[in-house]
Amino acid sequence: MPANTHDPFGDFRPVLPSIIRLLAGIIVLIVVQSIVLGFPGITQTVPGTTFSVASFAIFTVGLVVAAVVLKYGTQLASAVSDTYKTYRAYAPILAWIFQVMALYILYSVSKTMVIGFFASTPWAYPLIFLAMALIPTVKVVVTVLHALEGQNAHKQTVTRDQF
Predict the structure, then answer these.
(1) What is the tens place of the pLDDT at every residue in 98-122?
(2) Is 45 within 8 Å of 56 (Cβ atoms)?
(3) CA distance to 56, 69, 90, 104, 144, per residue, from 100 (Å)
(4) Domain interval for residue 53
(5) Which of 4, 45, 49, 102 is the most exposed place for a label (fewest CB within 10 A)?
(6) pTM (2 decimals)?
(7) Is 95 exposed, middle or buried (0-12, 13-18, 19+ CB in 10 A)?
(8) pLDDT digit string (tens) for 71-101?
(9) Whole-angstrom Cα distance, residue 14 to residue 158?
């Protein structure tokens, strides 16, 4: 057996590009956010509004981070599903984790921008994001249950002999 045939990543290799894209995208955007927040005058408020330029910059970068997490996280879930056939039923859970992470990032970065709109009803803002998180949660529960028990496990068919 030649020494060069040993692959240190083994079966993990097909998943590596998705992981690298996800991590590199997040790291680059965190560095961009750190650089932008170091600009002079970034704490000034935007004329005619109550939020600062820094909160707008954080919102913009956070929106891109949420998009990166959503896009590359779901690609990672697909790669895991395609690579590891035994875990195919659990791939929607991994995609759901990334969807909820993207929603939480969006919730966190947009809080400073919209807090003025929800001053009279502070409970409404978290409730909106909770409702948005319930949609993928219900979808993943149904998908995983169907995958684990089989699509036709509980369906009954009616034949002519039963009448």
Answers:
(1) 999 999 999 999 988 888 888 899 8
(2) no
(3) 22, 10, 16, 6, 16
(4) 12-154
(5) 4
(6) 0.77
(7) buried
(8) 999 999 888 888 888 888 788 889 999 999 9
(9) 45
Longest C-alpha distance within the chain, in Å? 82
Residue 28: pLDDT over 80:
yes
In a domain, 159, yes or no: no
* Nearest to 57, CA basis, from 68, 46, 49, 72: 46
The answer to the question of residue 108 being in a domain is: yes
CA 140 to chain centroid? 13
Torsion angle of alpha carbons 72, 75, 79, 81, nearest 10°? Answer: 130
Per the CB < 8 A criterion, the answer to whether 35 and 63 are in contact is no
Does residue 29 sit within a domain? yes
How many domains is the chain partitioned into structurally?
1
